[in-house]
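G., before I forget:
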Amino acid sequence: MSSSQFILRFTAETSANGVRAREFTLGDIPGILWSPAAPAPASAPAPGSGRAPLVLLGHGGGTHKKWPGVVGRAQRLVSDGGFHVVCVDAPGHGGRPRTEHDEREIDVMQRAMGAGEPVGPIVTRYNAHIAERAVPEWRATLDALQELPEIGPDGPVGYFGLNMGTAIGVPLAAAEPRIAAAVFGLFWPDTVAETARRITIPIEFAMQWDDQHIPRESALALFDAFASKEKTLHANSGAHKEMPRFEADSAVRFFARHLGPGVATGA
Amino acid sequence: MSSSQFILRFTAETSANGVRAREFTLGDIPGILWSPAAPAPASAPAPGSGRAPLVLLGHGGGTHKKWPGVVGRAQRLVSDGGFHVVCVDAPGHGGRPRTEHDEREIDVMQRAMGAGEPVGPIVTRYNAHIAERAVPEWRATLDALQELPEIGPDGPVGYFGLNMGTAIGVPLAAAEPRIAAAVFGLFWPDTVAETARRITIPIEFAMQWDDQHIPRESALALFDAFASKEKTLHANSGAHKEMPRFEADSAVRFFARHLGPGVATGA
């Protein structure tokens, strides 16, 4: 994969409630970069002004960069943390084409769900396949964004992804030394626990205590697998999709502790 | 036990950093009430002004109401939450006399610790004994403090106690309908899990993932026992005494969610 595939082009920009959202493409990968909206400068800002940590935000299976839960987390990370936040559509997700392999696996998964059969074996297998494609895309995204003056090459980087976002994020964090802290959760250990054993950065891990898809012991085993000296488990009562919203606020505070402060927006 | 035993007398008062601390005795039980320090009023405040939720703060075994960890939690609850906070010395703790039974159990416990033997069986047994004495004292404390105009009879009440504070707090919360939310943790299920099954208020429960005294499965079993529809487990890497300080901040936010806002101190 040559880096010439990955040319960053900003395609649209909006700004609301102190958050600037820039859509972009990196080659044929669509993404959004959310940033603190700078107050109107009295003069041209110096290069590197507004520099702040970057958080990579991985969406879940079947969703995409504009999914309400994704946008909501991005807005909190910008407004409350002052971070830059980026989400790119995973392979086969959002506006991106599905391969025959994608179609086949999605079909198997939907049939299992319809029949009330366990989806874990299919999700873990299929998401591992997506992760193989997504990890180099995330690394190229990081390369490109670190060339922007407001992000820069030396700033700390976080990763935040649940569900498929964890299936992609665990191998990404293991491969990518620029990632300094990560929030994971809502996933099985089967395909990622071995890789988690090589991860030593601070981790916050969220699970649902009454998850109908992921057995409690499986979620606890994945949390246990991380070699991180500093790690925190948050388990909330409720089913797979009932994670309380305050966990998104907790993630903002986790990144503020480990990446340092972002840009004060005055919002 | 007649209520005439329990006359509330304030004995000393200090104020620093926006926190007013009033020492008191309730009969022969010594305690401290921490409150938001009101700004100097232009005129006499109306009765009930500054009214805010009350958090009962239970100290751990071997400590007391002026232990740094207790005072630190109280200050955060007042400064960041705007709550009133009270801690009373548990029977046999702080300045309070020890019975022969206390002396004997403490001796057995210290010998087990010195010999590197498991302390769980002794701590759970002894703390259950202390809880029998402490629960009516806490209820009398609550009765007395609810007569103060700044607390009042109808406001929501929280309970926050780890270690022995959980051994006392679980039967207290089960017996006391005025307690609307509680933070527990760092305890074994043996003597309290049956009682926890009758508790339905929102719970935040803290454990240490690498606790050298409390087996991981035991801590998880106690969290699981609570019948609360809304409950959250926080497990942090590290040994029994290595709970991160940010868990105290989490408790403040938990009470703010469930008890409502306290008094804005402007601090």
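Chain B has a mean pLDDT of 93. The interface with chain A takes residues 209, 220, 223-224, 228-237, 244, 246, 250, 253, 257 of chain B (CB under 8 Å).

More on Monday.
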